[in-house]
Structures are given as structure tokens and as C-alpha cells.
């Protein structure tokens, strides 16, 4: 696998060009893009930059973060606050993502998407209004452990950190999640299954597979 060094602005523009040309294989009028990676990889920053770059190309884009679709604390913390297997298996409400985001963007969907369901800090409903996406608008879904759920992504970008870099850049309070990311690498091999791999060990100098 050949990795090519690139700057973050150049990567954003290259990805935006590719997304602009996306045609969903299932006939959906809404391209669905995943930006997958651990919180330390800062997927949200890339996704926000992509949304802005797409809008300058005349393509509306909606960013949705998986943290807005975590299950209620009573469910995700059932086995304690620091259980990596629960983090891996239970935190993300995949059913809600299907119902509120991916289902409406299926070929026969309405395009009416809920950007967030629950505030992860307050554990309360965000009461976010639904957003009507016109045909051609792009969904940018970012977050951790996104691959392997059968989500119908038209393009999946994985921001990879080596185990050492992930440990170094993960705050001490969140280091209990590290076994979940090791399990993700071992079971789902996101570096191989994603369409585009971005190595982000050095936050100033990424490298990618074009």
C-alpha cells in the first residue's frame, strides 16, 4: 500500500473533488460519506472542512456526528463507565441512525434527516429540527467505529492512528477506550476495508492512499 504525503487543505480539496463526482451505486440521489476514526484523529475537523469545500462547489452537505446518536447513559453505561466492550458494542444507537439518517437517504427515502438525537453531555434529547436534503446533497457522517454495521456508504474514509500515536494523543480520562480500538483493528481491519486511508500520526503531515 503506497502512502502519499499531503497537507490537510490539499487532502480536503482532493476528497471534495472525489465526493462531488460520486454516484451512489444503489441509485440514491444522496451520496453518503463516512469519515471514520478515533476521537484523537479529529474526524470532525476534516468533516467540517469537507462540508465547506463541497458547498463552494455547489453541493449542499450535512455533517452528522455519531456522538449525537449515542444511546442513553442508562443503556451504554450499564456495565460501568469504563467498559471497552460496551463502548465497542453498545454506545452507538445504530437503529436510530438507520431510522433517522440513513433510511431517509435510501433510494426511495424522503431526504428528511434528523441531524442529532441526544446530547452526549446532558444525556437529553437535542430537539434538533429535521433537515430536508435536496437531491444531490451529501451526507457526511463522522465518528468512531463506523465500519462493519452494514451502513450503505458510497465512500468511506478512515483516519488511522498507530497504536502508539493513539495512546499518546488520547486524553488520560479516555484511555480506557483504547482496547476497543485495538479490537476494531483486529476484527474489522478498517485500514483495509475503507475506500481511502489517511495516516494521521503526525497531525501536521498526513499521508493518504489516493
From TrEMBL:
GO terms for molecular function: kinase activity. It comes from Actinacidiphila oryziradicis. Keywords: Kinase, Transferase. This is Uridine kinase. It comes from the Bacteria.
